[in-house]
Structure prediction request, 225 residues.
Amino acid sequence: MSAENGWTFGLRGSESAVMRGQAPSSATYAATAHRTTAPVALQQTGTVTTSKGEHKPEAVYVVGGTGYVKESADGWKKGPLSDPGIANEVEDPLAELDAFAAYAKSATVSRTAAGVRLRVSASGWQLSAARNRPALKRAVREVDPTLAQLRKAGVTATDSQITLKSLTETWDLGGEEQGYRVTSHRYTFTFLVPFRSGDITVSQEVRADARGVFDGTVALPPGAE
Prediction:
């Protein structure tokens, strides 16, 4: 997809933590992302909606290899993309596609009416073992903040007791005449966290759909530096 200056993606996501007999804690996310290829930069603006009906605007930029995040009326925070607190806010399908190369051999390949579909699935892994699997790296990074909150609330389950119930990553690519460019990317996972006599189910789903070519530029807004 580097043949074009940039691309626009529509983003949708949801996450939840559910315990039997309790009201779920959940949030949804909708955003638009502009991603340029030369130079590599990302502008991502959207809204987080909580299960309590609160709407929180969020802006994310990646410029010069540094991530910048602004949530609601809070000030900007910035850091390297190696910082999980920054990386978990960034939804960059092209960067994810690069990371996918490390475990693409484990994907199943099928033809679709529009082109090609690549899919990776996993289940049954203990979190302690999942931390060392390239295909599960993102899921582990994304679930860690939720686990930290649960442990502060009294959940004592260790990594070896937490289980990956399911993970599916799906890439839909256009056909050869389109250069096999990304049309959509979906990433979904569920972990089971033992608590008392049952499990807390922690789930997340993120989807990015290509909306077309982006001919603009991405620049940091005032105050981000």
User: Anything to note?
Assistant: The chain has a mean pLDDT of 93. Residues 103 and 134 are 6 Å apart (CA to CA).
